[in-house]
Structure prediction request, 413 residues.
Amino acid sequence: MSTLALFGGKPEISVPFATYNRIGTTEREAVLETLESGILSGYVGAPGPGFNGGPKVQELEARWADTFHISHAVAVNSATSGLFAALGACGVGPGDEVIVPPYTMSATAVAPFVYGGVPVFVDIEPESFCLDVERVRDAITNRTKAIIAVNLFGHPARLAELRALADARGIYLVEDNSQAPLATENGVFTGTIGHIGVFSLNRHKHIQTGEGGICTTNDGDLALRLKLIRNHGENLIEHHNVPTAQDLIGFNYRLTELSAAVGLAQLERATEIVDEREALGHRLSAGVSGLPGLTPPQVRTGCRHTFYAWPLRYDADAVGVPRSVFLRAMAAEGVPLDGGYVAPLYRLPIFKARKSRHGPHECPVTERMHEHEEIGFGICAFELSETLIDQIATTFHKIYEHRIELAERYTRA
Ligand SMILES: Cc1ncc(COP(=O)(O)O)c(C=O)c1O
Prediction:
């Protein structure tokens, strides 16, 4: 058996992982053409055609709506802006509660604060790392205005169930679909099952414009509110005659024409990019299956996982090695993994400084995933080939085969 790199052996992978570059000739040409047009933004924050932005933004929205089979797509300059706009469009106000998971990027859970709302943390289920529907049900009160479900790592939350629950209770379901473009639940695209979906186009995502985002909805009234919030809506409320939105504050969440041009080129390639990442994710799962204590990502029946990340569940008792030691051994072999994604968000100072709370239950699954079980690999972060994926899988096996030695040497150290 070869020596572990951690103990002086030759690393399994000796070349550092390169950053995944999805930008090519089409994007370059689209940007040049837009530059030459002289129109870098078409927005005007007043009644008139400029309210909806320039030609590239509008084309991106039309194509996005076509691709995702949705009535309205509203381009914004980040998913963070999109989440803020979504809660504003839902009418979240002071004291209104918004149910959020604690295992997500911070923007999901700070969004309610923008309107004086209260984030209410509800635990995730261990299989998908997404909201636990029964816990959500228990957490709804007469102050609940919305639920934000995150389709984490590229896998759908239990969206149809959450939408039915939201409709039954007269509240909104917002999907934070930043990590899951083209994922599906029962054949329906994520980002289109909630009342509003929010996509990210930041540089880490499957398709990107550097910074950017898209909100989606089938509701014309919500689409108008999203547009008013995106673009100085206070100047347009009278023009659009929205009596229920007199107090709406418009921001500047406008995407530039250059970014929209890149977005259009990327959207053309979205299927190809997502199919490839999905196949690499499944290949890694197959390569790592069958090792007791290592559970590759599970895909719920009827769902498509698009593998923004590849989240493994690690059982330290079954393997006999603490997660941190396993990760150290993998890193020494040249495989960059992360342990535990983000700390449960309620630990951040802002959630103590401002009003937030848990639902009726604590979040033990989130705590366990963060502290002990979850190991992530950034499928969308790196240039990857099937060969490299196979090498990563081989490395998992190598560390696994050395687990007794690893445990002994770790205990002695
Ligand atoms: C789940 C989730 N929500 C929101 C965001 C924020 O996206 P953006 O950087 O486009 O504002 C991200 C980005 O990392 C994310 O992963």
